[in-house]
């Protein structure tokens, strides 16, 4: 098999998104979402992808106590959005996971979906944002563990792959039929499901469907 066939259709791929309280690599992460998919699954619906997404709220006080940061300008940005969205994506919840619980949950999810540390791709809208903040948290929580939970060498920009798969026609990461989807912007699980949906649309040549 060719490299493309082996990597892109043999292994599960992951779309990852986070919500944070700042732009620094050390910023507090409030939410983490991971949507798994395979390019050989066919055209999956947004709802199917959303249903399979791992979506967790992470304890913010624990992160602050370990030295992670909050940017007042990011808080101001969140405050320009609805209270509903802030409850969904910014505020602490009754179900916040400790960092230990979050990593245990993430590892179990990756194992269940057969995430391959060396061959599975990690897609993001902005690799520098997700990768470096998750890498920073990983290094801080596991200072003696050389292997990242999510392989920091396997990140890919959604817009780059959209450009390739569309034959150079678009870099937009959102589906053209976004208005028809039950989509909630800046909710990490909705963002990852939409990004996976878009990649599958373009892979299967169904951009307008």
Secondary structure elements and their pairing?
Elements: H1 3-10, E1 13-20, E2 29-37, H2 46-51, E3 54-57, H3 60-65, H4 72-78, H5 83-89, H6 99-112, E4 122-124, H7 127-141, E5 155-157, H8 158-165, H9 188-203
Helix pairs in contact: 8-9
Unreliable residue runs: none
How far apart, in Å, are the first and last alpha carbons?
Answer: 30 Å
Q: DSSP helix count?
A: 9
Task: Report the structural category.
Answer: alpha/beta
Strand content: 5-15%
The major sheet is characterized as: 5 strands, mixed
Strand order of the largest sheet: 3-2-1-4-5
Shape verdict: globular
H and E order: HEEHEHHHHEHEHH
What helical percentage do the residues reach? 40-55%
Instruction: Compute the number of strand runs.
Output: 5
Task: Work out the radius of gyration.
Answer: 17 Å
- The average pLDDT is 89
Structure description:
The protein is of the alpha/beta class and 209 residues long. Helices cover 42% and strands 13% of the residues. It has 9 helices and 5 strands, in the order αββαβααααβαβαα. The protein has helices spanning 3-10, 46-51, 60-65, 72-78, 83-89, 99-112, 127-141, 158-165, 188-203; strands at residues 13-20, 29-37, 54-57, 122-124, 155-157. A 5-stranded mixed sheet has the order 3-2-1-4-5, sandwiched between helices. α8 (158-165) runs parallel beside α9. The two termini are 30 Å apart. The relative contact order is 0.21.
């Amino acid at each position: 098999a060719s490299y493309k066939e082996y990597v892109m259709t043999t292994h599960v791929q992951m779309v990852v998104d986070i919500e944070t309280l700042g732009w620094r690599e050390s910023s507090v992460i409030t939410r983490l979402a991971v949507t798994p998919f395979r390019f050989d699954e066919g055209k999956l619906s947004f709802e199917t992808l959303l249903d399979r997404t791992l979506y967790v709220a992470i304890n913010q006080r624990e992160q602050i106590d370990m030295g992670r940061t909050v940017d007042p300008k990011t808080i101001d940005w969140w405050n320009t959005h609805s209270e509903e969205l802030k409850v969904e994506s910014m505020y602490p919840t009754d179900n916040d996971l400790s960092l230990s619980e979050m990593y245990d949950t993430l590892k179990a999810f990756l194992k269940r979906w057969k995430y391959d540390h060396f061959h599975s791709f990690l897609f993001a809208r902005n690799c520098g944002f997700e990768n470096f903040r998750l890498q920073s948290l990983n290094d801080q929580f596991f200072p003696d563990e050389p292997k990242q939970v999510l392989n920091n060498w396997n990140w890919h920009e959604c817009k780059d792959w959209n450009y390739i798969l569309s034959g150079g026609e678009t870099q937009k990461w959102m589906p053209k039929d976004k208005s028809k989807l039950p989509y909630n912007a800046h909710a990490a699980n909705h963002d990852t499901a939409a990004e996976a949906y878009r990649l599958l649309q373009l892979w299967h040549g169904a951009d307008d469907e």
